User: Fold these one by one.
Assistant:
Number 1:
Amino acid sequence: MKKSLLAVALSAVFLVACGKKEEPASTAAAPADTGTKVLNIYNWDDYIPEGMIAAFEQEFGIKVNYDTFENNETLHAKLIAGNSGYDIVVPTVGFSKKQLEAGLFQPLDKSKIPNLANLDPTFMKKLASIDEGNRHYVPWAWGFTTVGINRQKVEAALGTSDLPANSWELVFNPEYTRKLRSCGILFLDSPTEIMPAALHYIGKDPYSNNPDDIRAAGEMLAQVRPDIRLFSSNMIDDIAGGLGCAFVGWSGDINIAADRVKEQGGRDEIVPLLPSTGGVFFVDVMAIPADARNVENAHLFINFFLRPENAAAMANEMNYPTGNKAALPLINDEIKNNETIFLSEENMARLIPSGGYANEISGVLNEVYNAFKRGR
């Protein structure tokens, strides 16, 4: 590969701890495995290769119930309520730190996951800055939240092919949003996706726990609220369906939407941009809830996912990079060489480190975001 994908660049952008690292509050033993041939998975929408679940079911004779969620807030509510019924969940690392510290995940039995050896040691070392000893988390995929565009529609709306180097200007600066309003601006519908980018744009800590900083970001967002067409929980379909020309979304989802447009015979070019000041880095991980019932089956699936061919299929089909080093030779060149998927070291260094907000600030964060969304 022409890029050192993980060994160097990730160290600049990986994880920002939100306060002192603590051991999980709960030390209770995990519930006994039910011994049933069932596995319940809760994952993000549009985030697994076609046929992977069926292949696992056929090989192991285990029925998989596969549910999806739209944002970290939905997953968090399920975990906090308890008795979610899920055996594997896929949270985002920065957001999930408070879940880990609350004892909501049980330690992995690594003796049952021999394919952990396929993971990149440097990647796992960085992940350990949140999950000490890599005791609870196994990486699913990573990427970044950024600005994507329909190039032809944006250029037509702006009246020029010259785009700002800092792509956040397209969605946060009224000078641009007023012009793009005609072809549609879409935002992910999640405070923990939008607020870090907004805070970063106004020069604040993306994960500031200062209420004044969050309110200042809200004031900036209020200036562009009249120009936003849609807050989306189905960004891939909305982009591919032509509902907008500029969007705040996940890098992989924007690339998936681009593929769908091509498959449908569309000629418009859908691209995730690389802002000069960086997109917001994230890592999504598999974890086993503390109250999971089918723990043995959960370990089987995690080990299955870590096979090189399965991790490569995720990257090839879903347009998200993997932390599975053994999978890299199996990833298609068009994916490996796409600099909006596997970033160069220079672009990796620009990414905004992942993080999370303290529980104490959640009320202000949600209040400001909801006021922005309602246009008040």
Number 2:
Amino acid sequence: MPPARRPFLRRPGTRAERLPREVYVLGLIAFCVAVGFGVLVPVLPVFARSFGVDNFAVGAVVSAFALMRLVCSPFCGRLIALFGERLVLAVGIYVVAVSSGLAGVSTSYEQLLVLRGLGGIGSAMFTVSATTLLLTSVRHEVRGRAAGFFQAGFLIGGMAGPAIGGLLSAISITAPFFFYAATLAVAGTVGLLLLRTRSACDDDAPALPVRPLREVLRDRGFQAACLVNLGQGWSSFGVRSALVPVLVVEVLGRDTSWTGIAFTCAAVVQTIAVGPAGRFVDTVGRRPAMVLGTSLAAAAILAVAFAPNIGVLIAVLCVYGVSAAFLGTAPAAAVGDAAGARGGTPVAIFSMSSDVGAILGPLVAGFLADQVGYPVAFAVGAALLLVGTAASVRMPRQSPQPTPVTVPSDPEGGDERRLG
């Protein structure tokens, strides 16, 4: 038996396979954040329209959040090096909480736009620090499971949020803003109180090597993870979220409520698949999980354009949900493998790749759908996912195990392992 395979054959429940406390705390935080965000999503466009603006201006409010995430993500690695993941995570969440609460009392469109942009800054801080903490506080052989647990928190919260938002909007159009601020305040406080100040999945856990950034950027696993994340952001937020609601109404002739039903079914399937996907990533490997996930996602997203009825569409979206479970775990685990202890900046680059897809995807997909039709718009998303497949095939067949080393201090930002 080759020595490199042995860590993946440990029996479940052994010390090496236990998830550290940080993973469970981050899963709880993810749930709180996703519930609040899901509450806000249905009412934000309506509230923006109440200021008498056109649909483009409404879209700008939504895009401002993602745009500021993209702009600010590169600076989050430096903040993490200076202050640690725990503090950056909490401050980022509080920034989103305060900006969301103030957005609920906005008296003009301009105020709402600026406050949503500020929320994007806090979201970047939270996302990069939480992902960095998640990946550097677990062992190599359980990174897939850890990423899956974190993803499940977002998925469950995302399913519960819109239902709560519908009830709150019946009280007031601004009530969801305050609910979102409250759930974020809870999430930030949980992070400050329950996350430990140093990364330690076990007392005797080996220290992760600090790899030079240029070496991380040349890592084939890291490159593949970023390309997969770009394709996933483009397809999920650009093609699926922007075009499927229109396709349901204009092509299939169904009521808009069927879009919610279809997305809910896909989210349930994805949540169920996250656990098995995470274990697959840890036992079989990152490379096969990413090849399988991108191939399946490409086939599913292309098939959406040719769905003859709502039943087939729901089935295809559920297949896409299965693929999304793999793509939410394997690339993140690959980034953790490649980055070692230097999590902040590589994680920021990884996060930005998805943001680029989420910003450009809706614009390009909408343009293509108007000019040449839905099949071409969906085919472009599938093609980007297949680029991720090709990059994943080039990955090493077995990710190297981190070598136990003494972690040196970073001369520019302090100890890279310091978490707060």
Number 3:
Amino acid sequence: MRYAEQLGFIDHPDGVRKIHTVAKPLVGGLGIITGVIIAMLAFVPIEHYIGLVIAIFMIGSIGALDDRKDMSFKIRFAVQSGAAISIMYFGGTTLNSFGNLVGLGVIQTGLLAVPITMFCVLGVINAVNMIDGLDGLAGGTSLVAFSAFGLLAWLNGQPELMLIAIAFVGALAAFLRFNWFPSKLFMGDAGSMTLGFVLAFFAIAVTQKSGSVVSPVAALLVLALPITDTITVMIKRVLKGKSPFHPDKTHLHHILKAMGVNHHKVVIVMIAATVVSSTIAVIGTLLQLPDYAFFSIYLACFTTYFVASYRIKGIYRKLIWLRQQRVFNVELGEILR
């Protein structure tokens, strides 16, 4: 933080999309990456995860460059694709199966495994990057997701992956000490892109192991919030004739803020949603729920969210009405503020 300005890692407010009003250091991501790499060197046989380490350095570097000076999305996508190739080439971390999604048999990716893996990895990277809009949001939801993946790795007999997940939980807990509202620093693209990439890596590594007890859709549930929010926003942009990557304020955290929910409660609500979906994934794995049961749960969540996003004005009016009510002589407005 002390040298952030000299190094060019400062996020200045723009008065348009950015919510903060004071310039803040963009060094949190570099701290997270450094902490995790040190922990991996100390506790994990690094030669087993050389592809992941290379990929983290690639993503962290392009993210840091983007934090200093906006990089072309083509360059970002090229580096992200290279990072995906790294984990596939060195570690064989490839999405080979979606599981038995509809009860008619396992859906294999076959010859399309490599491009599908790259598409999914890039999707998760940018989904996590897009929800990094409020103090504590990306860090809090990622901490919950890594906790869930650590448990799933343990259930799946993958202790080394569990240790890497614990390293990220520790680094994120330390980061949130400085990023919780009102924050002293941000993680920047170096942090959000790296978190998204490693979460995508875990989603594949935990579910694609031979004899895995973890359903691919269980991993989807762990990442349900950023994925669902991003898909919904992109669909709505395309329907309006805009690019799916066109920046706007239609993400869930923007909508909740516009409805008058304060910063702290928005973050708590979204982290709580991730806790619920991740808990379903872990408990469902313990109960050995079939893939199609997990998928049905996710589809129900996605449909509810997507429909609600089109009825936001009605929800807003009902919230205003609730704020004006008194129950047992208690002002609901004070509770909902």
Number 4:
Amino acid sequence: MTQENLSATQAAQPIPPGAALPHRKIIRSWITPLAERRAAIAVALLVLDWVIFATFIAGTVVFTSWWAKLLCGVAAGFMIGRLFIIGHDACHQSYTPHRGLNKLLGRIAMIPSLTPYSLWEVGHNVVHHGYTNLKGVDFVWAPLTKEEFEALPRWRQWLERVYRSGWGPALYYLIEMWWLRMFFPRKAYMGARRPEFIWDGVFVLAVGVAWIAAMVAAALATDQSVALQVLMGFVVPFIFWNAMIGFVVYVHHTHPAVQWHDDKVAWAKAAPFVSTTVHLEFPFKIGALMHHIMEHTAHHVDMSVPLYRLKQAQKKLEEMLPGRIIIQRFSWRWYFDTARRCKLYDFTRRCWTDFQGRPTSDPAPSYA
């Protein structure tokens, strides 16, 4: 069989378990027809989410009882997450067919999360997607080895334990991602320095100050507690958003079956766009409420597929690669079991370990 005929065969039917994976171009070709982007849908989704977010923020002012304010604050935090997912898509140039419009909509969508668009674009598109789960390059929830963990000072070991306890996503994202890498990052965290980074940082800072000032003004105008209003109208939504995004990026790439690599050659051979991502399934259409960001394998295979087509793309991949994609039904029991097992990573034995270095997962295949 010629190479052309082999490629055509691979493109036409599912790949049996155990057979060699075809080239990424062939895998992408299965879902490329679903990468059609529509500006009207994109704009409508953004406007809808902004209106709902603004309504919940208004609810923290209108309602006087603390519990109603809290519910509105939490709901506003969830809407920040939805808006950020839209901004994430726009940053990938997968949201609309127009590059300039994507940049505009992306910045608008990322405003409530106080995310500098340009810094996210570099850290996420170039580093995370370019080198997913390659230790030393991809920094998102990158696991330490036992030796690295033991070399840390006591306070930093304690912080790592909190991060990986299952209760730490908000703290992890707030410190390790937003504060260190998004809010005027030092050169150690962002090697290149561009005027765009600074101006986006200034814009985000101005938005944060204006948001807090608006909550103070609203409290004074309605004769309410300033502290309570700032807490419920700014702090609660922002902390909930950090918890939401910290959780999402954790479960996307942390699982006993997910591989990490410290060798670029072995990493490239492991088809990292498939083997390092998780499709997390939720009950009650919760995945749809998060704009299908949990159909994550399809997103890593082809970033050009818009969020409103990811469900179909993920289904196609799972039909064509039976048994290859990590599909996990979500439960809190599974989540905390994963947090218990996935503390550190042993790159020699190719498995997850606890903080004592004891293996907690089966060894991953060797690709070296």
